[in-house]
Write a structure and sequence with these properties.
alpha+beta, Beta-Lactamase, six-stranded antiparallel sheet, five-stranded mixed sheet
Length: about 425
C-alpha cells in the first residue's frame, strides 16, 4: 500500500489535506460552543485536545509540502514529519473519518443540549402564549421583558406601546382601585383586570414583576352576589320587623277573640234571661240554668272546660238565636268548611243579638248560595227600622274584620230591612 509521501502531490493527497482543513474549522467551532455553553469540564478538555491535535497534524504535514520530491537534493525533516509521511495514506483517511464522526456527535450533542435548555427566544415565546399579562421593569423604568398580552392592555390603557414601565405603573394606580395589595382596573364595560406588583432580585439587580389577569367574569359574578346579599339583608331586616309585628298581632287577635267570646257569652245570657223573665212559658228554666253554669265554668276557668267535644259553630249559633226568641229560617246549602261555618255562625249570632236589642225583632232569614269560587250569604232580620245610618262597631266590626281576613267581603244595609250580605271565599 502506498505511503502518504507517495500521494502527497496527487489528487488523493490534496483531498486529504483539504478535508483536514475543513475538520479543523468544524472542530474549532465545536470547541468554541463547548466553552460558551455550561458544559462539563471533561467535555471542554476533550474538544480542546481534539482541536490541538488536528491543528498540529496540519502544521507538520504542511512543512514538507513546501519541498516537492523532484528537488535534486534531499532535505532532512524532523522525525515526527518523517513518521507521518511514512504512514499509509489510508490511515489518514480513516483518522479523518473518525474525526468527522466525533465532530458530528459533538454537533448533535450541542443541538440536543440547546433544545433541552430554555433560551431567550423560547422564554419570550412561552410568555406570549400565556393568557395573563407579564412584565418585568428595571429600577430606572426600563421594560426588560413583557409579553404580548401586557403590551395589548398597555396600548388600551395609555394609547402608547409599553416602553416606559414607570409611566405604565402610574396609569394603573391612578385609574384602578386598590384591594388587598392588588389593583382592580376596568377597561371599558367588558374587561376587568387584576394587577399584582412584586419586587424581585436577579443577579444583584432589583426588578418589579407586574402581572395582570382578566377577571371580568369573576367580577360580574361577585357584583351580582353582592347585590343579592344586599337584598337578602333587607329581607332579613323586614322579616325580623314582621316577626315582631306578627307576635304583637297574634296577641291582639287572641285578646280580641277573648273579648268577643266574653261579649257574646254574656250578651247571650243576658238576652236569654230577659226573654225568660218576659216570657217564662216560652223557655226552659233548666236549660237556662245549664247555660249559666257553663258560662260560670268558662268565666272562672274550670279545669275541665276544654274536655267536651267541640260543637258545630253554626248549629250552636242557631240554638243561641232560638234561645233569645229569634225564629231562624235557613235556605240553601251552608258551607261545610269549619272556618266558613264559624264565620256564618258568628254572623247569625251577632244579627240575632242586634235584632233583639235594637229592633225588637223575632224572625231571621239566612239565604246561602253556593257559587263556583265563593258563597253568597244574605241575612235579613225584621223589627223596627234603624233611625239613622249604622256605624260598624263592636260585634259587627269584628265580624267584618274576620270575613276580610279570609279574603271575603261584607256589607250592611240598615233599611228598609236590616240586611247583612257576605261573600265568603271557598
Amino acid at each position: 500500500m502506498s505511503v502518504f509521501a507517495d500521494v502527497v502531490f496527487t489528487p488523493v493527497g490534496y483531498i486529504l489535506r483539504i478535508a483536514m482543513l475543513l475538520l479543523l474549522v468544524l472542530q474549532a467551532y465545536v470547541c468554541i460552543l463547548a466553552f460558551l455553553r455550561p458544559r462539563r469540564p471533561v467535555y471542554r478538555a476533550g474538544t480542546a485536545l481534539h482541536t490541538v491535535c488536528i491543528a498540529a497534524a496540519i502544521v507538520l504535514l504542511t512543512d514538507r509540502t513546501y519541498f516537492p520530491p523532484h528537488l535534486p537534493e534531499r532535505v532532512a525533516f524532523p522525525a515526527p514529519v518523517e513518521l507521518l509521511y511514512s504512514l499509509p495514506w489510508l490511515c489518514f483517511a480513516v483518522t479523518e473519518l473518525c474525526s468527522a464522526a466525533a465532530i458530528a456527535l459533538c454537533l448533535l450533542s450541542d443541538v440536543r443540549f440547546t433544545k433541552s435548555r430554555p433560551s431567550s427566544d423560547s422564554v419570550k415565546e412561552a410568555l406570549d402564549d400565556l393568557p395573563v399579562g407579564v412584565c418585568f421593569i428595571a429600577a430606572n423604568g426600563t421594560v426588560t421583558l413583557a409579553n404580548l398580552q401586557m403590551n395589548t392592555w398597555c396600548q388600551k390603557l395609555t394609547d402608547q406601546p409599553l416602553s416606559d414601565g414607570n409611566r405604565f405603573l402610574g396609569a394603573i394606580e391612578s385609574a384602578g382601585e386598590h384591594s388587598n395589595d392588588q389593583i382592580i382596573l376596568q377597561l371599558g364595560e367588558d374587561c376587568v383586570l387584576l394587577f399584582a406588583d412584586a419586587e424581585i432580585e436577579v443577579d444583584g439587580s432589583s426588578y418589579r414583576q407586574l402581572t395582570a389577569a382578566d377577571i371580568t367574569e369573576q367580577f360580574h359574578v361577585t357584583a351580582y352576589l353582592e347585590r343579592q346579599n344586599k337584598k337578602l339583608r333587607d329581607i332579613s331586616v323586614r322579616m325580623k320587623a314582621y316577626s315582631v309585628e306578627l307576635t304583637d298581632l297574634v296577641m291582639r287577635r287572641e285578646s280580641l277573640a277573648a273579648r268577643v267570646m266574653v261579649h257574646d257569652t254574656l250578651g247571650h245570657i243576658l238576652l236569654r234571661s230577659k226573654h225568660w223573665f218576659e216570657h217564662p212559658e216560652s223557655d226552659d228554666a233548666a236549660a237556662l240554668y245549664a247555660l249559666l253554669c257553663k258560662a260560670d265554668e268558662y268565666m272562672l276557668g274550670a279545669a275541665n272546660a276544654g274536655s267536651e267535644p267541640a260543637e258545630d259553630p253554626l248549629a250552636n249559633a242557631l240554638q243561641v238565636a232560638k234561645g233569645v226568641g229569634i225564629n231562624v229560617t235557613v235556605t240553601g246549602e251552608p258551607p261545610q268548611d269549619t272556618s266558613l261555618r264559624r264565620l256564618l255562625g258568628q254572623a247569625v249570632r251577632e244579627c240575632a243579638m242586634n235584632a233583639v236589642k235594637h229592633a225588637d225583632g223575632d224572625k231571621m232569614l239566612v239565604a246561602v248560595k253556593k257559587n263556583l269560587a265563593d258563597y253568597t250569604v244574605r241575612i235579613e232580620t225584621n223589627g223596627a227600622p234603624a233611625a239613622e245610618e249604622i256605624t260598624l262597631s263592636g260585634g259587627l266590626r269584628s265580624l267584618k274584620d274576620a270575613v276580610e281576613t279570609l279574603g271575603g267581603s261584607m256589607t250592611v244595609t240598615p233599611t228598609p230591612v236590616f240586611t247583612v250580605e257576605m261573600r265568603l271565599r271557598r
